[in-house]
Amino acid sequence: MQFGIFTVGDVTTDPTTGRTPTEHERIKDTVAIALKAEEVGLDVFATGEHHNPPFVPSSPTTLLGHIAARTENLILSTSTTLITTNDPVKIAEDYATLQHLADGRVDLMMGRGNTGPVYPWFGQDIRQGIPLAIENYALLHKLWREDIVDWEGKFRTALQGFTSTPRPLDGIPPFVWHGSIRSPEIAEQAAYYGDGFFANHIFWPKQHTEKMVRLYRQRYAHYGHGTPEQAIVGLGGQIFMRKNSQDAVREFRPYFDNAPVYGHGPSLEEFSRETPLTVGSPQEVIERTLSFRDYVGDYQRQLFLVDHAGLPLKTVLEQLDILGEEVVPVLRKEFASLRPAGVPETAPLHPSVQKKLEV
């Protein structure tokens, strides 16, 4: 099973000090976080994509290309690649190039993002969000699998005899996840192509995540890709840990209370009860994460958000130490012991990466 972290790249004032990092600091800190993830033995680092303040990751492939040059084993991914407002041809080119630079250590997650104004910034209509996601991915899927593409759709100019370059490494495209919080159409899309489905699993109660994953599994089997249990599922999650839960709650509370996304709303206790946010001891994080299996089944990737809401770099790196030393080793062992035969342990890897792991 793959364990890792994802970032949304927010630039947020630390509520305990009043200090706001510069964009330069936040970008450099993100690189440091990725390097630490590899150091402590995590499998995946994923970045979001945003084109507005207070976020900095507007160019995921630039960031991931730099990290690729400084790591050896880390799988480089996205927690959102905006399939609705990026041109599919440019996505095909950029991520194939990254795949070559990283020797296959690349996959990506398609999504629509959570910033409505991004649509007109890139000449699109938010009311066409779902049709854009469906059509643009159909073209991307084709570009990576056919050397010469003829294409005509609703949302972009037609292509005639077009070849996307570079071609995917060894002719094998990056594995694709389709990420969604609320849209069954995206679960259907993931199932249709036999791709992975990533349930963001952050803001909604477990009953909603359970329904979305169940739909994806059923439709995955319907399209003939395997049994429902063999479908490739990933989950997000939010954690903050200290040796004992009281210290964790006391330290994290001001960050939670002032976070741009959920600050000044439900209390930390209410949010932790109603969503997968876990603030406590390493053992509490282990137990909560293992419980995800009870309602989504055996799954292949777990990503945690640890670097948001103004948390200083030192604190984030401490979280990664705890995650790598105390939490993930236990989760690997426990999830493996529960997984039935015939159910994939991990998301598909490029053969060059799989071969490296087997050596």
Automatic annotation (TrEMBL):
Annotated Luciferase-like domain residues: 1-294
InterPro entries membership: Bact_Lucif_Oxidored, LLM_FMN-dep_put, Luciferase-like_dom, Luciferase-like_sf
Keyword Oxidoreductase: yes
GO molecular function: monooxygenase activity; oxidoreductase activity, acting on paired donors, with incorporation or reduction of molecular oxygen
Pfam families (alphabetical): Bac_luciferase
NCBIfam families: LLM_CE1758_fam
Protein name (database record): Oxidoreductase
Organism: Streptomyces gardneri
